[in-house]
Amino acid sequence: MTIHDATIGRFFEDYTVGDIYQHPFGRTITEADNVWLTNLTLNTNQNHFNEHFASQNPITGGKVIVNSGLTVAMVLGLSVFDMSQNAISNLAFTDINFRHPVYVGDTLYAESACTEARRSKSRDYAGIISMTTRGLNQDGVTVVSWKRSVMIATRDSGIGQGHFPETADSVSDYS
């Protein structure tokens, strides 16, 4: 029997420039998600919570539109498993583009293309990964995109590894 260590995400060595990483999870946005984030961030734009007001907005299709902060946070979160689970630090977000409205009930997916991978000049235990990430709705329409750079631990750094406790029981206890 082989015991595989508890690991999540990729390390610096696992990225290939030009590869696209389709992130494994999708997430449907609920009305509660939109209202909670809108209230939490004190966003008073009524297009996010007033159906009558939003019905008069030709850009939103006359429907309540999801808070753009939620759209970014959701797509970012969906990308973490593949692109920054082992991040030491976010370094930059640039060129955020909102391309299509997001509505309550939409399901978001994300994918990222690795655009650059280099060893850190100042930290030998890390590399810098640059990527372009985009969020898509259930119809495959891109709703948001951005460029991002992240400092990622190398596998030999030990960062983000070895966190699972050693068992006090024997492996034979599974039989």
Automatic annotation (TrEMBL):
Name under which the protein is recorded: MaoC family dehydratase
InterPro entries found in the cross-reference section: HotDog_dom_sf, MC_hydratase, MCH/BMMD
GO molecular function: lyase activity
CDD domains linked: FkbR2
